[in-house]
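ARCHIVE ENTRY
Sequence with per-residue tokens
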Amino acid sequence: MFKGKSFLLTLILLLLSVVLVACGGNENAETNNEGNTPVEETNEANESDESANDGQVPEKPEELTMWVNDEESQIAAYETIADKFTEEYGIEVTMTPYDMLDQTEGMSLDGPSGQGPDIFFQPHDRMGDIHLQGLAAELELTEDQLDRLSEYNEEAVTSFSYEGIQYGIPAVVETYALFRNTELVPDAPETMDDLMGVARDLTDGDTYGFLMEANNFYFSYPFLTGPGGYVFAQGEDGVYDPEDIGLNSAGAVEGAELIGSWFEEELMPTGIDMDVMNGLFMDGKAGMVVTGPWAIPDYQEALGDNLEISVLPEWDGEVLSSFSGNKGWLVNYYTESEYWATELALYLTNAESSQTYFETAGELPAHTAVEINDEFMSPIFEQTQHAEPMPNIPEMSQVWDPIADAFEFISQGEDPQEVLDEAVQVIRDQIAIMN
């Protein structure tokens, strides 16, 4: 598993190299990476970047603009935070509500014409597409900015890099955890052995000790990676290698064998899905389930004080790593205020702002210094410290269906090694076609 500290060190080294290049001049100033930016525009951006990296803060713009996901609670949170930014820095912030999933299309049209915002909001798994379209600026962070970024969830920071380039500042992290009906399971299982023991003891007829959507790779991921499986190998620089697929490795097979045993021992019903799981849990027919914070309102209404949440159990002394989906702020490639746009992104996601955002919008922050004083969200926030982002490369799109099919066959008693070998071959073939 790649760790973000190594990536932050890489960023620092890149920063130093940028400073040296800036001091030595730029022989290729007439074109940018894509060769399509006017010389004057490129030179202005270089001057701004050089002054920031030389410790001289660029002149403040009168205004910064941002596209905010068009959810009422998120807009309200960012209005409060943006007002404070204006009070502190004297820069007006103009917000435009814009559906997060539509923003990349809007950026591709408005960015080059100068009509796009200075920053926009995106899920991390779109980074490959954003990189290929050239929509986001490669962040050239100052030492001070890097110091502040080191306080964020390391994996969340990495999720907004692509091919070793940092493009974004993470804002929120979403993952799942272990939900319990304390009337059936008073204490949280610390290890997988504990969990399996409870599952076997409680399962009887239409009552189950442990349920999850086992055929959904998003949720089954921890049980493959706990014993050593992985999706794509990652280098020290955070770059994924789509040719190195670990979903049929020895560790992944061991995890798949465990999942297969749940069905073989009839600890889970074949064809278990989210609706069946939710119904059984809310009816008091399941002791433990794996799901995310979206389920809290319905579960709390059904179970009342009997609902508790904890981190996933340990495998060989390590808390299982759940998949996470992260969202964050990207700087428009065409902005004329890259430094101050980056400052705005960091301000929107710093500890104080993240506290405000959580209390208003209810989403867990990527900044680790926030205090989450909520009996249900606090353990999920703790689980985010053990979460790994879904790979953000385009090849990941070819993984979901073959692995879902594989789990379907495994739940029906097929050999895990053979099934996973076939699934990985399908993934390789589809990636080859895609590329």
The radius of gyration is 23 Å. Residues 1-48 have pLDDT under 50 and may be disordered. The longest helix spans residues 4-24.
